[in-house]
Backbone:
């Protein structure tokens, strides 16, 4: 039972590592995206959110945008400290590509930007969060168990040991006394 569970876990992790490796190679040639979005309402206003998972150029980009639309009382002017002006499209274009090109440490990157755009009686606050992770880093934690399985399998397959249970067969080379299997030399 324990060996079967170990073999299943090893095969699952190896399969997952191979899938991530295939996505890594594919991301060098094709940009794939998964995008989800939604709307949330509360007492202070309306909030829209968007999540994007992008694989491109060997990296996984996780992007989270939160746009909050907040209506103020028309009789009171908007305080300058609450809202600063800024064009959302030009601010976004100016910051995101720089992070993708070179503002990273060992391939990892993180950026958070808040843009506030005022109007007559409302303010739109756009919060952009971007995280970049190299895809090969996701493979590394999956490999120790398959490498351990390979090392155990090689140790068992050495001459003079049972290939099924690893028992030393020097005393009984024709049959394993531990599991009862007939060795390949007798067959």
Residues:
């Amino acid at each position: 039972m324990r060996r079967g569970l170990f073999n299943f876990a090893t095969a699952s992790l190896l399969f997952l590592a191979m899938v991530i490796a295939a996505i890594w190679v594919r991301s060098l040639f094709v940009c794939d995206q998964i995008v989800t979005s939604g709307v949330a309402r509360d007492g202070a206003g309306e909030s829209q959110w968007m999540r994007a998972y992008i694989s491109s150029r060997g990296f996984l980009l996780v992007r989270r945008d939160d746009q909050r639309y907040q209506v103020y009382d028309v009789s009171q002017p908007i305080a300058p400290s609450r809202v600063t002006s800024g064009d959302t499209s030009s601010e976004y274009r100016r910051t995101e590509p720089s992070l993708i090109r070179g503002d990273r440490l060992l391939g990892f990157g993180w950026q958070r930007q808040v843009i506030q755009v005022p109007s007559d009686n409302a303010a739109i606050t756009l919060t952009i969060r971007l995280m970049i992770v190299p895809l090969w880093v996701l493979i590394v934690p999956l490999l120790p168990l398959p490498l351990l399985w390979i090392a155990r399998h090689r140790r068992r397959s050495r001459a003079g040991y049972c290939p099924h249970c690893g028992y030393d067969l020097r005393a009984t080379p024709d049959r394993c006394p531990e599991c009862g299997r007939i060795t390949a030399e007798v067959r």
